[in-house]
Design a protein that fits this description.
Length: about 425
């Protein structure tokens, strides 16, 4: 599902400076028939999570000193503040779990007198700065590219604020060039991996006819992705059928991951960010790349977390805005991942559960516990709006709004559910 959200057609060559394009063709020259690329990278094999759980990860990437850690700290602090009883934890210094803001939770918990509220969550990972040449080991190089491989979606922070005291690695603020540098490194990394994989596929012999079909699908997909990458386009821009998608999944290609561009602006630009030409560049590029974009001021967000809750609105109003940009950023990340929410609500707790769009009722039940899926009998389901208008599950049942659904039922956004199961 995450992939469905990012299968886009991109007119990317026009987005890359022509020198980047030459660079691609030069650095990754074919060696003979074997489709082998010149260029070496070592990458860890760990992949991003494919099941839905607490571990859906969004990686914050960008050039050094563009505000990634400032944003990360603000998001993590804010997530903690928004949900006092949410089991917030910092797994490592640069990984934090953040609550997805959802006003429906409070409404449901009031109606059912819940003792606690548990929101959906996303894991944010603050990845160190990526520099030009990272795919060839520059800066902290490959290590960071391997960290990106482990996330489900990418938030690319782009510096849109001017400040002579804060060094820009390339000497000046230039969002288009900054985005090119990052995207090219991701492309180089994918090209290298695909080259190696094609080489192996071309040398090896499939075990049986089933593996042969899969390997053919993989080869065909990889060759098309390789061409796209050489033209400066991300892997997600290549249309793949289900078999091909499945066959290339194990490679965890970096440019297959959905991306949101985060324009990091000065506090003075928050009230009317469109006036800032840097923001305009980010917006235009992100829409050409069919990716999302969000405007935030990491600096303001981090200052907000230092203030008591009642002073935050006052501060935001003094900057000409009504709310923090982090809620937007978190929600955009959630929907970019193709995720949706269903609720369970009772006296003990009201809880938001995260599933991929398109999951059936037993699959959705398995997010709570695998026994719920194994022993699934039926799901009693009511739409959020119907639950609220009826006022309780019992009232919804009386009014005929509560439906009894079987194994085939595709769960809808906002369903309030009760599972019947046998163990
Ligand atoms: N919107 C903003 N306006 C002004 N200053 C900002 C803004 N966002 C971040 N900064 C400042 O930019 C500097 C660099 O920020 P930060 O350390 O978060 O960058 P980084 O991308 O994490 O860098 P690195 O890659 O080195 O880890 C800090 O001094 C921070 O306060
Ligand atoms: Mg940092």
């Amino acid at each position: 599902m995450a992939r469905a959200a990012c299968s886009s057609v991109v007119t990317a060559l026009s987005l890359l400076p022509s020198k980047s394009h030459h660079l691609l063709r030069n650095q990754f020259s074919f060696s003979g028939k074997s489709n082998k690329f010149v260029g070496v990278l070592t990458l860890e094999r760990r992949c991003f999570s494919s099941t839905v759980s607490m571990s859906l990860k969004a990686g914050i990437v960008g050039l050094p000193n563009v505000g990634k850690s400032t944003l990360f700290n603000a998001v993590v602090e804010n997530g903690k503040a928004q949900a006092a009883n949410f089991p917030f934890c910092t797994i490592e210094p640069n990984v934090g779990i953040v609550a997805v803001p959802d006003s429906r939770l409070q409404v449901l918990s009031k109606l059912t007198n819940s003792q606690k509220v548990v929101p959906a969550s996303i894991e944010f990972v603050d990845i160190a700065g990526l520099v030009k040449g990272a795919s060839q080991g520059e800066g902290l190089g490959n290590k960071f590219l391997s960290h990106i491989r482990e996330v489900d979606s990418i938030l690319q922070v782009v510096r849109c604020f001017e400040d002579n005291d804060i060094v820009h690695v390339n000497g000046k603020v230039d969002p288009t060039s900054d985005i090119d540098v990052i995207n090219l490194e991701l492309i180089f990394c994918d090209l290298d991996q695909i080259g190696k994989r094609l080489d192996r596929l071309n040398k090896g012999k499939p075990k049986d006819s089933q593996s042969k079909v899969k390997e053919e699908a993989e080869k065909s997909a990889l060759q098309r992705i390789q061409e796209a990458l050489l033209d400066g386009k991300p892997a997600r821009s290549v249309a793949l059928n289900d078999l091909e998608k499945d066959a290339v999944k194990h490679l965890c290609l970096l440019t297959m991951k959905p991306m949101i561009y985060v324009a990091n602006v000065a506090e003075t630009d928050l009230a009317d960010p469109d006036k800032n030409s840097f923001v305009q560049q980010v917006k235009a590029l992100s829409s050409d790349l069919q990716s999302g974009h969000v405007v935030v001021s990491a600096q303001v967000e981090s200052e907000l977390t230092e203030l008591p809750l009642d002073e935050r609105t006052e501060y935001l109003n003094s900057l000409g805005v009504s709310e923090s940009g982090l809620g937007n950023l978190i929600r955009a990340t959630y929907s970019l991942l193709g995720l949706q929410t269903y609720f369970t609500s009772g006296e003990k707790e009201t809880r938001a559960w995260t599933i991929h769009a398109g999951m059936t009722a037993p699959q959705a039940a398995s997010v709570i516990h695998s026994d719920f899926e194994k022993g699934f009998i039926r799901a009693e389901t009511v739409a959020y709006e119907d639950f609220v208008s009826a006022g309780s599950l019992a009232a919804a049942r009386d009014k005929g709004l509560l439906r009894s659904e079987g194994k085939e039922y595709i769960v809808k956004e906002g369903d309030v559910m009760l599972f019947r199961f046998n163990v």
